[in-house]
Amino acid sequence: MKVIVAKTAGFCWGVRRAMDAVLEASARSDGERVQTLGPLIHNPQALDLLGKRGVGVAPAPDQVAEGTVVIRAHGIPIQDLRGLKERQAKGELKIVNATCPEVAKVHSKIKKWSPKGYFTIILGSRGHAESEAHRSFADHGSIIVQNMAEAEALPEEQLRKALVVAQTTFTVQDFHTIVDRLRERSGDLIVENTICEDTWTRQNEAREIASRVDHVVIVGGKNSANTRHLAELAAHHGKPHQFVETAAELDRSVFTGHETVGVLAGASTPTWLVEEVVDALEELGRGPGRLAKLLRLALGMPLLLALGAVFMTLGIHDWMGTPRTWQYPAISGTYVLAMFLLAPFLDPMGLGSKGPARAKILERHRALFLGTGLASLGIALGVAATMGLGSFLVVATASAFGLLYKQRLNLFGRRLSLSGIPGSKDILVSLALAIVAVALPLWHHSAAWNLRTWAGVLVVTSLVFARTAIHNIKDMQNDQILGRETLPILIGRRATKIVLLTLLTLALAAFAWTTLEAGLPRPWLPIGLATLAAAYPVAYLWLYHERFTAGSSKVEPPLELSFYLVGLLALL
Description:
Elements: E1 2-5, H1 13-27, E2 34-37, H2 44-52, E3 55-58, E4 67-71, H3 78-89, E5 93-97, H4 101-113, E6 119-123, H5 129-135, E7 142-145, H6 148-152, H7 156-159, E8 162-166, H8 172-185, E9 189-191, H9 197-210, E10 215-219, H10 225-236, E11 241-244, E12 260-265, H11 271-284, H12 290-300, H13 302-320, H14 327-342, H15 356-364, H16 366-386, H17 389-403, E13 409-411, E14 414-416, H18 424-444, H19 451-474, H20 476-482, H21 487-491, H22 493-518, H23 524-544, H24 561-567
Parallel strand pairs: 1-12, 2-3, 2-4, 4-5, 6-7, 6-8, 8-9, 10-11, 10-12
Antiparallel strand pairs: 13-14
């Protein structure tokens, strides 16, 4: 079976903006109640996770309790907003308006033309929160039209002087067809195409995929209008299709295992739900092939990262001139393996905080992961102990920070957690490996701290930071809804990329300068390897950074390749 996933699948920017708003409100609530007026998005699984983070749902304005209320992306009727603002003025609550700017544009169009006597025709879904909010701005009357039959039934008096707008997720083809007919019937018709760019891009790709597959699976909430429209597009192409919220709803009996299946997802569908469906479909057929599956498994295992840490430790110490021993790389590799395998099981929010797909893998292989992680931790501490009490304490402290990162500890009468510091993970992971892999051996040998050793620390720190930051950039969609406070979420994609490029550039410059200053034979060989190692994360980001991970290449080169390139310094 071949599975084609739409690259536009997943949150649209308006939903991401709303998720940012509610998660930020939750993080800053300081114990106060946080609620959304109506469901934030039309996806029950995502709403369940928000509920676990303490975000409630107020069904109606008069049921909004004191605290913070977030206006969802669909917007709310103007009279409801005015009522909430009156309560805010009294100090009863705080409003966070997460109305999508594209939705707000529709409001502004109606406010422009309705006072001039234009009757407002809204092409959309009757009863949908967005369309109902639009109607509240139409002082000169309005109606919601769902299809051509309803458009034909409009009385002449409503068409004499009319404005046509659309729900931002309305189907593009239906919009133009209905508008053409209304132009024929109306004497004075103002048309504002308010379908947002994300919608028509998503629908265009849905048509393209539906035209070349045997079966279509649409993933998303049953109450999501834009997801329903994707299902309608699949039906229009005459293709068998299923509309599911989770992989558990898939009717597997209709597949033979030899089809080409297209997977579409709505603007409010989290990535991990689509990944679960893709995994379920690939299990029905031959999937991507045995070799590709093995490569994907190998490239996704922490073992590859741990081996990369081993090679990077060997290479950087050979370049710095530190005595070569087996202990340093052994500690680096086992420490990394232990942290990545054990940390998920110590998360206070449980395995579910990793997302349902990841949680299923962790639960299925719990004994293997825990056993390997504990054995790796024991080896790291044991080897460090052979190097002396100081080395043991350094590794033990680094391990404690890694394993207790998300634990809330009572300090000075307050419950504090390292994970509560926004963006701390990206920085602490980089520093921890730099300390274990570079600083610890230098202290053990009482080596002098000069520009060359500091350059070594900077190289390791920058490469580990690049790996962590790129993973976090790719996983921003999941991290937002799961509430992870990563650096890209804190400062944005663009700023994170600038920090990444700056750090890599500084590390490469320091490496090249100190290599030339040290008078090493054939200095351009180590400088060339370091250049490749620094350039690789940048190239990876450019080539493989896609909006949606499940739609990316089935086999991607590992981000850890830069670690192995540094390891080649040991062969020079």
